[in-house]
Amino acid sequence: MERTFIAVKPDGVQRGLCGEIIKRLETRGFRLCAAKFMQGSEDFMKNHYLDLKDMPFYAGLCKYMSSGPVLAMVWEGQNIVKLVRMMLGETNPADSKPGSIRGDLCINIGRNIIHGSDTLENAKREVDLWFKAEEFVNWTPCYQPFLYE
Ligand code: DAT
Ligand code: MG
């Protein structure tokens, strides 16, 4: 089993899309491990997006990510890092296929509503950055034997 970090960004929260995004992850069969509704500081977001520190949009991105509440979550499932990236669509909603979260729900690259870890290594780093051990709930969904062979 893999875990990944997912956040509904401030634009997704403001647009009332938390429920829609949770629904897609739940109905795919992923297990929610941890969740919190919070507003991070600009410095926190600078750390989260450290990989992008040399990009021209880095400062604006971190400022935006700290401008309002985000729904931060850890989800678990077989192959989840890759599967969630496919569910997100492309970074630019304009390149995202209909049926994907970004392809269905947003338009602009700077307002693409959701974050999902892009590799297993980054998922581990982001999960550790956003959540403490005591924030996780250990539970087994009752449908588990019908979802996995
Ligand atoms: P992703 O969120 O698909 O993993 P990323 O990690 O490359 O994409 O970039 C992080 C966020 O930065 C992305 O969700 C939106 C913003 N961003 C990326 N490229 C951008 C660009 N060319 N102009 C403005 N914002 C951009
Ligand atoms: Mg990324």
TrEMBL record:
Keywords on record: ATP-binding, Cell cycle, Cell projection, Cytoplasm, Kinase, Magnesium, Metal-binding, Nucleotide-binding, Nucleus, Phosphoprotein, Transferase
Cofactor(s) for this UniProt protein: Mg(2+)
Molecular function terms from GO: ATP binding; metal ion binding; nucleoside diphosphate kinase activity
SMART domains registered for this protein in UniProt: NDK
Catalytic machinery residues: 115 (pros-phosphohistidine intermediate)
Domain Nucleoside diphosphate kinase-like, residue spans: 1-138
Residue numbers binding ATP: 9, 57, 85, 91, 102, 112
A Pfam family per the record: NDK
GO cellular component, one term: ruffle
Top class in the EC scheme: transferase
A GO biological-process term: CTP biosynthetic process
Top-level division of the source organism's lineage: Eukaryota
Substrates-to-products reaction catalysed: a 2'-deoxyribonucleoside 5'-diphosphate + ATP = a 2'-deoxyribonucleoside 5'-triphosphate + ADP; a ribonucleoside 5'-diphosphate + ATP = a ribonucleoside 5'-triphosphate + ADP
Enzyme Commission code: 2.7.4.6
Entry's localization field: Cell projection, Lamellipodium; Cell projection, Ruffle; Cytoplasm; Nucleus
Known function: Major role in the synthesis of nucleoside triphosphates other than ATP.
Family under the similarity heading: Belongs to the NDK family.
Designated name of the protein: Nucleoside diphosphate kinase B
Native species: Sphaeramia orbicularis
